Amino acid sequence: MSLFHRVAFRLVLAVLGLGLVMACRLSRHFREQVTRTLVVQVGSRDGVFHHYRFRPRALSSHLGRASAPDLSLTFDTARQGWLTLLHPHAIGKIIEALQARKASYTGNAVLVLWFYALTRFVLPIGRTRRDRVALPGSFIAPNPDSAVASRITREPAMKELDPDWKPAHVQRNKMALIKASRGEPFPLF
Amino acid sequence: MPASTSFPPRLNDRARGWLRHIWDKSTTADDWSSSGEPHAWWDHTSTQPMCSLPRFDLHETGYVLPIMCDITPAWREVYTRIADGLVERYTTFWASVDWLTLIGHDPDQANYPPEYLINIPEHLRGRYDIPGWTANGVEPWGLQPDPLGADGNLFTRGFFNLLMCFYRYVSGDDKWEKPFQVSGYRDQLFEWDQPRLVDFIHAQWKERPQGPHCENTKVWPFCVSGAGSGLQLYDQLHGTQHAAVYDQWLEYAQQHFLQINGKGNIESFAFYYDPIERTAATFRDHVDGYAALAPLMYNLPKNRAFTTRLYEHAMNKLGWNDPRKPILELHPDPRFLTLAILIARELGDNATETRLRSYAEENYEPRFWGENNEYFGWWFHTGEPWPRGQLSSLMMVTELGGQDAWSRIFQHSNAARFQEPTLSKVDYPALGIAQCWNDHADGTMLIETVCPRSSNRGRATTWEITNLPNAREVQITSQGHSVTTINVLDDRTIAVHTTMDDRIYTVYTGYFGPESLAKTAGDADSVSGDAPTITVTADSIAQAAKSKPCSGSCC
Q1: b/e map of A2-38 (b: 16 or more CB within 10 Å)?
Q2: 3-state DSSP call for residue B365?
Q3: Which end of chain B is more exposed for a tag (fewer CB within 10 A), N or C?
């Protein structure tokens, strides 16, 4: 029986890898989310391991262990692994397994959420989407009759920071958000 | 160890160490203009990308001040000075660097690292501005050069108002209720004062029950709640009625930002809502606990039932209240666990508080530093040259005062303290204060002085007590000795000449509370007793001044 589960887990991980590679080739939206070089590994203590190598706008899928994964998620058993990954609430199941000490991770756990969102391109269960109707009272355009309208100075829309305001450009480049978005290393918190 | 919650209240070593650090931060001049840069000790890194701005260090540093003020209500001058430095910086370019420089949509939308992307709804990733990118100038809002007078950017004006309320709370002073200039786009200046800002927040919110936009165009329960706390405290301090909009919004949030499953349990709580995209950003499954925790410290003083519900949801999802489960910080940001400690304490969930506090003690690197270890902060194993201001301040809030120390600020602010005898002109930071409060039953003031640097011990110093019912009736004892080196400066003020040391003073002030100002002279004799005269004399002070030259920061 355990052989069956190991085969099933290997199959799930390999098919997932194939699907991710295809999604990366076919979907610009997918590629827009693959921005850094990193390795995610998923496996089980009873011997199944698979890893996914990401680099900007590309990824590859590999059997076996990675040498230094940025995230390694290891289930106690292959059975638990494939059942969890195919569960509609896989994130919750992973966390429950971690809390029950039936799974463990090393590295950056935040990558689980990011990686899981990518898997929704392959397994379209539980994808997020825009609501059909906005929540009541949504404010989506300026109100010239607002009681505070006279306190808001409004100029025409601008697409970028005034190029002539040189000091502001210098200071903006020091912001953590700007540096991280441009690929500089940043602390996890 | 965390600050004592025993009575009489006292600032312990950690609290005084943190106060010492934020004193340096606030009173050391640095340039927050568009041509300058804040000192490196201002935290512009924590909780990326939404809070990694030095502005967040300003208002979050302010959170400890009213609680410290409640611990030493008769000594407030240092809190006032720190708060003033924080508020003043909030008017600058760097306080609004995001609104003033992140113009248009982010050209790097498709280049965010995975750690940032998780904060964006999955179907918008790669084509949506990251939280924190305020996007001033985008359609349909247009460019709005005033960072306070804007359709969006509530998270600047809301927390700014909260910080100004803290200034008023500790000082009793209306400085920031008078006009001041705020730096805007291209260094334009805009005139504001706190009442006008409060009116703006209130009027705008009244028109937008969903909540004003914190950036362009996201409604964040976290920042809307912070703005609500500011209105609540403003009302408390001024007797106004602005916070009703916050009550209405909390009702709205429960109706529309909470997702309830078929069993009646919370499924998710919106991290933020974008009305143009018609999308609520939520985290999947158990991770939603983080979104639920984010606004709770602001919700608690206003709606305890809702806070309790969200808190229990968060704890159950994250497993932090279950001793059988390991404490997992799936998101490594200590902000969330710190908030959980605070809420656990305020709600009286002692088991969870103890468990999480123990974890923080082991993992968040609480550490004293500096000459004589007079500074304290949490270093979080970052290896950085300064403790993280935002996160350390939140940790300090969890340790200060008693169970409801945070909530009480918003519900029972005690303005009477400004009419009571008050310790002032202390030579801080050379001489610190651990205790200072008026005992209405005995008509006394208790003062505990602390001299953190041994090189300052024995140095001459003078401090004053103001607001006395009758300055000539004051008698002071310290460790069983009468202090006679007292000058009466006027009917209500004395100066006390003494030396710096770790010492407890009992000052008979004759102040028995606001209703009994007249009850002074008759009781004075019974308090003074037969204590011998203290050995500190004018000569010994002069001698000490010669033999103990000022060193370090006292100069």
Answers
A1: eeebbebbbebbeebbebbbebbeeeebbbbbbbbeb
A2: coil
A3: C
Which ipTM score applies to this complex? Answer: 0.97
Res. B553: pLDDT tops 60? no
Per-residue pLDDT for B2 more than 60?
Answer: no
Q: Establish whether the linkage from the previous residue to B366 is cis, with ω within 30° of 0.
A: no
B124–chain A nearest CA distance, Å: 8
Structure tokens at B290: 């983080």
H/E segment holding residue B433: strand B432-439
Dist CA B100 CA B331 (whole Å):
30
Residues of B in contact with A113 (CB under 8 A): 118, 283-284, 287
Confidence of residue B549 (pLDDT cuts 50, 70, 90): very low
- Which residues on B lie below 8 Å from A87 (Cβ)? none
Could you tell me whether strands B460-466 and A49-55 are parallel, antiparallel, or unpaired per DSSP bridges?
unpaired
Q: Which residue of A135, A159, A174 is in closest CB contact with B256?
A: A135
Which chain A residue's Cα is nearest to B198? Answer: A148
pLDDT of res. A1: 72
Q: In this predicted structure, which of A14-23, A116-125, A170-179 has the lowest mean pLDDT?
A: A116-125
Mean pLDDT of chain A: 97
Q: pTM of the entire structure?
A: 0.94
How close, in Å, is residue B174 to chain A by CA atoms?
22
Residues of chain B found within 8 Å of residue A38, distances taken between Cβ atoms: 114
**Secondary structure letter of residue A134 according to DSSP:** P
Residues of B in contact with A139 (CB under 8 A): 151, 207-208, 210, 212-213, 275
Instruction: Kindly state the tokens that stand for B183.
Output: 């730096």
